[in-house]
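Hey, resending since the last one bounced:
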Amino acid sequence: MLHRDDLPSSRTVRTGAAALVALVSVCLLFAPLAHGLAARDPGTAVPDTCAADSTAAPIPVPEVALEDILASYNENIRRAFDSIDSLHVVQDMFEPQPDGTQKTARAILTYTRAGGMVRDEVRSELEYPAGNYTLRSLIGPTLEPSEYLIELEDTEEAEGHDCYRLSLEAAVRDVDHIDGTIWISSQHLTPVRIVAEVSDPPFPITEIKLDKSFAPEPSGLWFVRRHSGEGEANLLLVRRRGVRHIFYDDYLVTITDVRSTESLE
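The structure tokens again:
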């Protein structure tokens, strides 16, 4: 699993091909869910975070109907969304460059019911827009049976949590829906990890992969902690790929109600 400190710390200047790579990176942030630590070793290569970990061992979880899992999961996502009065979080971006260095950016995301989400940039080397963010992009998606073909594949550990592993195939094919895998906590019925591709990326993007991990905060709610994205653009017979890693820290949340559905076990 990729951590912030696994990334190289050196900087670079924009290269001739960076404009198209930047386009890919911007589109990564318009993927669905974005509408979503060890000591630093500068020589460590960035692992492929958009591939699921196939070594996770199955865990014994009582059989539960998929319909019950989805009903409780969707209810928890909606309750989390409705319970938040305000939110403040630090967002750090890292963009690996072709020469092995990286560009970085830091911002503060602030949400209020009245004003929605506001992104205040602290510093940036990216030199282009960093994307749009919503509260729902930090909480996770709802999984409506009318919008997805969903199968319960297995039970296994992910990110240190016992989970249901579900496969997703978008019935609605657009930039807001994904094909891939989601791990849902069997205890909390909340998203733990999502590894997927956008079902229909916007032109000239031909592919957008994403890998998001979630964790509980002191408020009792679960939020995204890491979002890695990889995209490919094909423009004028030139194909380029771009990668971006986003980390979220120091959540401060005020809530009115944090009731959640208990485990289905």
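The two ends are 28 Å apart (CA to CA).

Sorry for the duplicate.
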